[in-house]
Design brief:
The complex is a heterodimer of chains A (476) and B (486). Chain A is 38% helix and 20% strand. Chain A is an alpha+beta fold and 476 residues long. Chain A folds into 3 domains: 283 residues, no CATH class; 112 residues, no CATH class; 59 residues, Arc Repressor Mutant, subunit A. In chain A, helix 7 runs antiparallel to helix 8 and helix 9 runs antiparallel to helix 10. Chain B has an 8-stranded mixed beta sheet, with helices on both faces. A 3-stranded mixed beta sheet of chain B has the order 1-3-2, with helices on both faces. A two-stranded antiparallel ribbon of chain B has the order 4-5. In chain B, a hairpin with a 2-residue loop joins strand 4 and strand 5. Classes of the chains: A alpha+beta (476), B alpha+beta (486). At the A-B interface, loops of A face helix 10, helix 11 and helix 13 of B.
Chain lengths: 476, 486
């Protein structure tokens, strides 16, 4: 699409889950009612001091470890000073000097190749308030002020929009697997800054970097990058590359273009300095070890395992790892000794379809793996048909009852050869004329006999065994 | 009544010789009288009532609160126009701790705007005048608190101290001013000036009263991460007056006459008076050594203080925009509204300090000014800690003499021959050291003070030395006597 090599870096801000805000005891949660989850700290009334939420620090360290970053010996924070109506203190508490993670890397799977993404740093900070702009006024909602925010900064290591978006999507999944964020872009929990430059393929130095701020969906990230590559390439093609300025732009959703906000000369000096109200806090090795132990297996590792060890298809694997709940469910099935392919199949075809139909989450789904096992065990033993299995599955869900309650003697499949022999003998004895017709070449009479057996057993006869017995008897 | 000590008042209260209500009424009446003369208060709490008295030494006794402590439901201005109508909805932890003891606040005292100043002349309610002589200043920034305690409105008032804001006005008003180790008293609810230097503390007329009040104010607070557990420190119980064998030092480069070839009469009397008092301590069995410290390091103290305090202040006061609280500024957009609020709200002195602070924090200047100031701060603190290994404390005179005239007062962000003598109390803030000023008699018929500063967490020892020294002099519990000749 371009004659030039694109170089892209990302800043990914993600709101963390926690009971309270990162520096105040107010609740960290969404509220339709503005200014509901707030304390004097979030609104910076005079005399307030921050207290650090340990849970958020723990989440940040966990993310740092997953990204193979260096974790500093001490946790401390910095002030980023600037005036903006969404920033009540006039400064943001963030990390600049010694972020919770530096110099990391992580692998992501692209179509046909593996990409190593280099992480510059990851740091813990507080979110700002949210602003609602109207024609003649703007309203401030402080519910979001002080929500813990994890900012991940990559090196300029992506070469196209697809890589950048694949990374963002993978990180969103990782955060969910770690349980540290809901990572919901629709709720504005993930926001990105993107920087883009272009260069000749044989050039040694990077081109002029343009930053696009506050891009709030992955689709927009993709569109913004592609637009910016196109814009810069066209200028370069026309010999006007000097018009590409080091500047900050924003993405306009209406026109799918980027628009200048400010140039380098107007760049803000944030006057960073160490936050004096939060003493340095030692991150002990014991704590790091304890956090490491609580890190679950991540989607990429699970994917490899499912394909290589359990023989699942890549397609099925991708469906399962998209959601940690699915993957955990699947793995619990395996732990219970269930067959991998059957479990995966049931999960994808029946369970996920059911969840989608009723817009439910797997955690609220009644049939836990141990119940699913009751059905699948009977299915594999041949005690029930797959049709019956499906019925039991639905009944159990309808009535919130264990499946085994529906797997009784009466409705279980008849697979007993002796019992079926007796039934078939009676039917054949009563249909001598039909046997004649069959033997004279009316092969479709075979299905008539199967039908008679089913009628007699009210559909419970195991059709495979019935067919075998009939074949034997009619040959003679 | 209000000239009495806390213990004396407590005795009278529990023996029903006087009621808490009587004390409150007297304190309120005295507040109004003093307000007429010296303009010490932002708010007098006329609705204050006595409480039922219990075993706590502070219960039922009136006191004053510096107007930079957040008090729920009570106007709290920081003596600034930016908060002239601000009524907080939460109370500072230190005040809450006193509330639990049954202490009764009767007024909010004026200060140099947000604690930034040492004169008591930058309060939005006007100058605070010295009760010993109304042509003189009280010093600051705890101007109103020092004024009221000195005038005998009540036995104690709360102060805050970022450079010397408790200890200098205490000297100028002839009373006791004590700031304990950094973190002993929670700063939650104290309007910040420079967070790494800010201390809560108290102004009293007796060392014993200072011990009683800080015993009540202190304690680890989960809302202030810099606070520490001091439950093993019992200040009042530590006052036995036995100081034989204690070792103090003074810094030659600060008090030696040789440093002041052009010494004026006042300074000479001040230093003479200081050295005379050292003899009192020696007679109690205290050793006092002269110690020499690199003068370059000492001379850096005022500049380091200006750099760090202005830088932190600039950031700390960025919440004062008039958006959430404070009078809304005028303008066509939000930045203009903020600018208008701040331009109109702050005094010239504060704005000057904001400019200095901003300049120091600028990316291109940070290393040169801010980071270097932090380095020098560390050097000074390390030097002091090294000396505190050998000595119990540092003993020095406060300032260059008695309180200056109000009309000749200048903001003391400046330099001169006597600048170290004037500013050395800032060492106590650099290191978070416990530091106490007690009255040390008179120069030119006006009170002067002497200060003892010790190592962190050694508050009990420092207070005990001050207590013993206080006992050798006649200034304990003194009330300002008006009309000193001039």
């Amino acid at each position: 699409m371009s004659n030039y090599k694109a170089v892209i870096g990302l800043e990914m801000h993600c709101e963390l889950k926690s009971n309270s805000k990162v520096f105040s005891p107010a609740k960290n949660g969404y509220s339709e009612i503005p200014n509901f989850n707030i304390s004097e700290i979030d609104m910076a009334f005079p005399g307030i001091l921050p207290s650090v939420n340990k849970e958020s620090v723990r989440s940040a360290i966990m993310a740092s470890l997953v990204l193979n970053c260096k974790v500093p010996e001490y946790m401390y924070f910095d002030r980023k000073n600037y005036y903006y109506p969404d920033l009540p203190k006039g400064y943001q508490i963030t990390q600049m000097h010694d972020p919770v993670g530096t110099n990391g890397k992580i692998l992501i799977d692209m179509d046909g190749y593996t990409k190593e993404v280099l992480i510059h740093d990851i740091h813990l900070e507080e979110d700002s308030a949210s602003l609602d702009h109207y024609i003649d006024a703007s309203l401030i909602d402080y519910n979001r002020a002080g929500v813990p925010l994890l900012e991940l900064v990559t090196e300029p290591c992506f070469n196209n929009a697809e890589e950048a978006v694949a990374f963002l999507e993978y990180m969103r999944l990782v955060y969910k697997y770690l349980g540290i964020s809901d990572a919901d872009t629709k709720m504005g929990q993930i926001r990105c800054d993107v920087n883009v430059s272009i260069m000749d393929y044989d050039a040694k130095e990077l081109g002029t970097k343009v930053e696009i701020k506050n891009v709030n969906s992955f689709q927009n990230v993709k569109d913004a990058i592609n637009y910016e590559i196109k814009r810069q390439s066209e200028l370069k093609d026309e010999g006007r590359y000097s018009e590409v300025e080091q500047e900050t732009r924003r993405f306009d959703e209406e026109t799918l273009t980027t628009v200048r906000m400010r140039n380098k000369v107007d760049a803000i000096d944030y006057k960073y300095f160490v936050e004096p109200n939060i003493p340095k806090y030692k991150i002990t090795n014991e704590w790091i070890e304890e956090i490491k132990k609580s890190i679950p297996m991540l989607p990429r590792e699970r994917k490899q395992k499912y394909i290589n060890e359990y023989g699942l298809s890549e397609y099925d694997t991708n469906i399962i790892i998209k959601n940690k709940e699915y993957a955990d469910y699947f793995e619990e099935c395996l732990n219970l000794g269930m067959d991998a392919k059957t479990s995966a199949n049931y999960l994808i075809v029946n369970i996920i379809a059911y969840l989608n139909k009723f817009n439910m989450e797997l955690k609220d789904f009644f049939l836990k793996p141990k119940y699913l096992k009751e059905i699948i065990d009977e299915l594999i033993k041949g005690n029930i048909s797959s049709k019956q299995a499906k019925e039991i599955f639905n009944k159990a869900l309808d009535e919130n009852k264990e499946p085994k309650e529906f797997i009784s003697k009466e409705n279980s499949q008849i697979s007993d050869v002796n019992e079926l022999n007796n039934i078939i003998d009676t039917i054949l004895n009563n249909n001598q004329s039909q046997i004649e017709l069959y033997k004279n070449g009316r092969s479709n009479i075979f299905d008539y006999f199967v039908g008679q057996v089913m009628k007699e057993t009210r559909g419970k006869a195991n059709p495979t065994i019935v067919k075998e017995i009939l074949n034997d008897k009619l040959k003679n | 009544m209000m000239d009495k000590s806390i213990k004396e008042l407590h005795e009278l209260l529990i023996n029903n010789k006087v009621s808490s209500d009587d004390l409150v009424k007297e304190a309120l009446a005295k507040s109004h009288t003093l307000q007429e003369k010296c303009n010490a208060f932002v708010t007098i709490l006329d609705d204050a009532k006595g409480v039922s008295v219990n075993d706590n030494l502070l219960s039922g006794i009136p006191y004053g609160i510096k107007d930079n402590y957040s008090t729920k439901g009570i106007l709290t201005t920081g003596s600034s126009n930016t908060l002239k109508d601000y009524v907080p909805f939460f109370t500072a932890t230190a005040v809450k701790n006193l509330e639990k003891c049954g202490a009764v606040p009767v007024n909010k005292t004026a200060l140099d705007e947000f604690g930034m100043g040492g004169t008591g002349t930058t309060c939005h309610t006007g100058n605070v005048l010295n009760p010993w002589n109304q042509k003189r200043m009280c010093g600051g920034s705890s101007s109103g608190s020092a004024c009221a305690v000195s005038a005998g409105v009540y036995p104690y008032a709360l102060g805050s101290d970022t450079g010397d804001s408790i200890r200098k006005p205490a000297a100028y008003c002839g009373i006791v001013g004590y700031k304990p180790t950094y973190g002993m008293i929670s700063r939650y609810g104290l309007f910040p000036f420079a967070s790494s230097l800010d201390h809560c503390g108290v102004l009293t007329r007796r060392v014993e009263d200072a011990a009683i009040v800080v015993d009540a104010m202190k304690g680890k607070d989960k809302k202030d991460l810099t606070s520490f557990d001091s439950s093993n420190i019992h200040l009042l119980d530590s006052l036995d007056g036995n100081v034989s064998g204690k070792k103090l030092f003074y810094i030659k480069e600060i008090v030696d006459f040789a440093n002041y070839p052009n010494i004026d009469d006042t300074l000479k009397k001040h230093l003479d008076n200081y050295f005379k008092t050292l003899d009192n301590l020696k007679s109690l069995g205290v050793t006092i050594d002269s110690v020499s410290i690199d003068k370059t390091l000492l001379q850096a103290i005022p500049s380091v203080y200006v750099c760090l305090s202005c830088a932190e202040a600039t950031s700390n006061m960025s919440n004062l925009t008039g958006i959430i609280f404070g009078p809304r500024g005028k303008g066509d957009n939000v930045m203009e509204i903020i600018k208008d609020h701040r331009t109109k709200g702050f005094s010239t002195l504060i704005k000057r300090r904001f400019v200095i602070g901003s300049y120091i924090l600028q990316k291109e200047n940070q290393e040169k000014y801010f980071v270097n100031a932090q380095r020098v701060r560390r050097l000074i603190v390390d030097k002091m800690k090294e000396l505190f290994k050998e000595y119990d404390g540092l003993i020095l005179p406060v300032g260059t003499g008695p309180a200056p005239y109000i009309d000749g007062s200048v903001d003391h962000v400046n330099n001169s021959d006597t600048s170290i003598l004037e500013e050395h109390l800032q060492i106590g803030n650099f290191g978070g050291f416990p530091s106490i000023t007690i009255p040390n008699g008179f120069v030119d018929n006006l009170p002067v003070g002497i200060n003892i500063t010790g190592n962190c967490y050694d508050d009990a020892n420092i207070l005990n030395i001050a207590y013993a020294l206080e006992g050798t002099m006649n200034y304990k519990g003194q009330i300002a006597k008006e009309g000193t000749n001039e």
